[in-house]
Automatic annotation (TrEMBL):
Keywords: FAD, Flavoprotein, Oxidoreductase. Its cofactor is FAD. This is FAD-dependent oxidoreductase. InterPro entries: FAD/NAD-bd_sf, MTOX.
Amino acid sequence: YTMTPDEDFVLDFHPAHPQVLIGSPCSGHGFKFGVAIGQVLAELATQGQTRHDISRFRVGRFEV
């Protein structure tokens, strides 16, 4: 399975292409969170934001 460096999800819009939504529930444990991840991604896709705090899942966390 695939893993991010911090072994967490990526749920965010692509920084260079804001019309692209990234949903990567990998890291071996994502399947358990499928319903919640789906809800967050649906809110982001339809409303541009979510009511959940997804700050720890933003793609920007990998920037130096």
